[in-house]
Amino acid sequence: MSGAPMLEIDNLTRRFHGLVAVDAVTSYVNAHELVGLIGPNGAGKTTLFNLISGFIAPTEGDIRFEGRSLVGMRRTASPSRHRPHVPEPAHPAQHDGIRQCVHRCPG
Ligand SMILES: Nc1ncnc2c1ncn2[C@@H]1O[C@H](COP(=O)(O)OP(=O)(O)OP(=O)(O)O)[C@@H](O)[C@H]1O
Ligand SMILES: [Mg+2]
Q: What is the reported pTM?
């Protein structure tokens, strides 16, 4: 693999008042790589994806896509098609499947 990673997550932290939901996460994803994230309930998986998609802002740290920092960038001004956000359904039965869910969620 040559060049910088496609996605870089650098010391990413998100606090909700006193609660540290994402604690100084540093990682990267290379182009054409498929990566999963596993962890127990409440580990911060959804919060991490919400940070990457720009749905919420980090308390500290940086997210870089192809070398450009996305932190502080409005989703509408950012390469948003590269970081779509699909909200979790309140109830799984609410959606017929992932295809229907993606069609319902612009951006
Ligand atoms: N908007 C919020 N306000 C306050 N606390 C929050 C908020 N969102 C998440 N949290 C808290 O942050 C922590 C991480 O939550 P998160 O939903 O990211 O975990 P998760 O790994 O996705 O869990 P699950 O496996 O249950 O989906 C939890 O303690 C949760 O209660
Ligand atoms: Mg979750």
A: 0.82
